[in-house]
Design a protein that fits this description.
It is a single chain. The protein has about 80 residues and is an all-beta fold. It has one domain: Golgi alpha-mannosidase II (Immunoglobulin-like). About 0% of the residues lie in helices and about 50% in strands. It contains no helices and eight strands. The strands form two sheets. Strands 1-2-3-8-5-6 form a six-stranded antiparallel β-sheet, with no helix packed on it. It is globular and about 35 Å long. The two termini are about 15 Å apart. About 20% of the residues are buried.
Length: about 80
């Protein structure tokens, strides 16, 4: 697991986990407010599918992710 530092680290936890075949980029909001975060490093860049919604997404270092209160996003590749 590699932490993906974001602009709200006291409220939102994000990390990347990968092996030779797969990669998971996960973002968890541990607060009662919706947050949009961007990231200060880029171990997560790539083309993903959001695991629960099926939405296809290209994530770059300049991308931001909006996560609802107490919500999460799990991107798989």
């Amino acid at each position: 697991m590699i932490r993906a530092w974001n602009t709200k680290p006291d409220k939102v936890f994000s990390f990347v986990r990968s092996n030779d075949r797969d990669k998971v980029f996960a973002v968890f909001n541990f607060s009662n407010e919706t947050h949009t975060v961007s990231f200060s490093d880029a171990p997560f860049e790539g083309h993903y599918r959001e695991y629960f919604s099926g939405e296809e997404l290209e994530i770059k270092a300049s991308s931001s992710v909006t996560v609802p209160a107490w919500g999460y996003r799990v991107y798989v590749k």
